[in-house]
Design brief:
The protein has 238 residues and is α/β, with parallel strands linked by helices. It has helices at 22-25, 43-47, 70-82, 86-95, 113-119, 123-135, 186-195, 227-230; strands at 54-57, 60-67, 105-108, 143-144, 166-167, 175-181, 201-207. The chain is built from eight helices and seven strands. Helix 3 crosses helix 4. It starts with 21 loop residues before the first helix and ends in an 8-residue tail after the last helix.
């Protein structure tokens, strides 16, 4: 349904977003660093966007829009832990061109119930709704998450377990799983197992790009790409 040459990917090149995402352009601040008067991303944050790729994670093939570092990592954190839904607008704009031809529905991979209560946001659902508007596909909340599962960050492959999702409603055709981050693929694997369908795809906002081919440690390694700078909290301005 698109390619990296589509206008929507222009956000990484500092171009104007297409009409379907014009609501993002009017954000008065950079949603990544909080600088005023330069939304949706300032020039510095645009320059730190690293395009993603695709790979197989725990047996699930997924395309990810951005590398999980610098601006990509910060956008996910703004959405996931600060509840800044305008970050979902930006991420959805670069995820939409990755959707495969023939996709019939978008299935968000839901956050654990306790984390959703704690942070007040379900990142995958926010992304799915915005992508659905861009690619004109229905969003099907097919999965029901467990109450909680251990965080996968900083755990090695042997310590990561696939969450046990249950079916909320059936989905047919060629659904596309949507999530905010993939590292080991354990969460995607759990979602795919619950759906029990042969044909599906996965599109994710960010990934460190570490393919899971063995039980070697999957480190949540400290990134050297200006991590300290990009972990600073957004300065709250009046």
């Amino acid at each position: 349904m698109g390619s990296r040459e589509d206008p929507v990917w222009g956000i990484a090149r500092g171009l104007v977003l297409p009409a379907t995402t014009r609501y993002v352009v009017h954000v008065p601040v950079c949603v990544a660093c909080g600088e005023w008067g330069c939304g949706p991303l300032c020039l510095s944050c645009r320059s730190r966007l690293r395009p993603g790729n695709s790979g197989v994670f725990s047996g699930v093939r997924a395309s990810y829009a951005l590398h999980h570092s610098a601006t990509g990592r910060l956008l996910v954190h703004r959405l996931k832990y600060h509840g800044l839904t305008s970050a979902a607008d930006v991420l959805a704009a670069v995820m939409a061109p990755l959707f495969p031809a023939g996709a019939t529905a978008i299935v968000p991979v839901p956050r654990a119930k306790l984390r959703r209560i704690a942070y007040g946001v379900d990142p995958a659902l926010e992304l799915a709704r915005r992508i659905g508007a861009l690619v004109e596909l229905p969003v099907v909340r097919a999965l029901r998450p467990p109450l909680w599962w251990p965080r996968h960050a900083a755990r090695n492959h042997a310590q990561r377990t696939s969450p046990s999702f249950s079916i909320r409603r059936g989905v047919s055709g060629h659904p596309v799983l949507v999530d905010d981050v993939v590292t080991s693929g354990a969460t995607l694997q759990g979602a795919a197992a619950a759906l029990r369908i042969q044909r599906f795809s996965a599109v994710v906002a960010t990934s460190p790009g570490m393919m899971v081919t063995s039980k070697a440690p999957i480190a949540s390694r400290r990134l050297r790409d200006g991590q300290a700078e990009w972990q600073r909290p957004v300065e709250r301005r009046p």
